[in-house]
Design brief:
263 residues, alpha/beta, Rossmann fold, 2 domains, five-stranded parallel sheet, five-stranded mixed sheet, 39% helix, 18% strand, disordered N terminus
Length: 263
């Protein structure tokens, strides 16, 4: 019997439904494409999966009947991406594993867990080693760099930012960014008009997801804080855990170089 905290299965799952884009990508990179039977409309990496696999809804709204018809051996969810109601509905269909990711160690533990669940331990170990190697190299590079004050936006109307107790905030810290909203938690709504009133913001980071920020949104914020620089960042690099991390540290170094050149 395979166990992970309170979750256990007594067989190797062969039919997988994934309701989390970053976890779908991880499954693919572990060599499990043929075992994936259902994904969300947001599972965009690799791009061909949306054409070859059954779409069972999004991350916030699913079609239980479609999932049930696929006869999954296991359903993969995430505490942040999927609601309690979705998890409960999935639990009534098949064994459901819910990941809970706050930092890089959690991410590596999830990769290891999937390696055990799906009999892909060598592949999982190899991936963890690659991520750890790149992480260590980046940490050596970044350790003497200037700490910048940043605000990381994820949504507009209402304006929302990433604060404490999020994976994004953890990666901001790894990048030696000081989150000006560290006194708040999760994804609070904020007033753009109040920005920069108490602490100077060096960079406003506008994420590519979940809200697709455009140039006009940056100009909107710039009117409120003309002394700050508006930077558009790849949201997948800051919020996708799993195999995406193998690419993230190269991106983070390139981002740091561009920020320093912009000063």
């Amino acid at each position: 019997m395979l166990k992970n905290n309170s979750f256990s299965v007594d067989y190797i799952p062969k039919r997988i439904v994934s309701l989390v884009p970053s976890q779908t990508e991880l499954l693919y990179d572990l060599g499990l494409e043929n075992s994936i039977v259902g994904v969300t409309k947001f599972c965009v990496h690799p791009s061909h999966l949306k054409k070859t696999k059954n779409i069972v809804g999004g991350t916030k709204s699913i079609h239980p009947d479609k999932i049930k018809a696929l006869k999954p051996d296991i359903i993969l969810c995430n505490k942040e991406e999927n609601s309690k109601e979705i998890v409960e509905a999935c639990t009534n269909i098949a064994p459901t594993h819910v990941s809970d990711i706050y930092n890089l160690n959690d991410s590596k533990e999830l990769i290891e867990t999937y390696g055990i669940f799906f009999s892909k331990t060598p592949e999982a170990s190899n991936l963890i080693q690659k991520i750890s190697f790149k992480q260590e190299a980046f940490e050596t590079y970044i350790k003497e760099k200037t700490i910048f004050n940043v605000a990381y936006f994820i949504w507009r109307n209402p304006w929302m930012v990433a604060a404490k107790k999020t994976f994004i905030d953890h990666l901001l810290t790894v990048n030696r960014f000081q989150n000006v909203y560290e006194h708040l938690e999760r994804y609070p709504e904020i007033s753009v008009a109040s920005l920069n009133k108490e602490v100077k913001i060096d960079f406003v980071l506008l994420s590519s997801e979940p809200y697709p920020f455009k140039k006009e949104h940056g100009l909107e914020i710039k009117k409120q804080i003309p002394s700050s620089k508006i930077i558009f960042v790849d949201g997948e690099m800051f919020s996708w855990y799993g195999s995406r991390l193998e690419k993230a540290f190269t991106y983070f170094k390139q981002l740091r170089v561009s920020l320093e050149e912009s000063i």
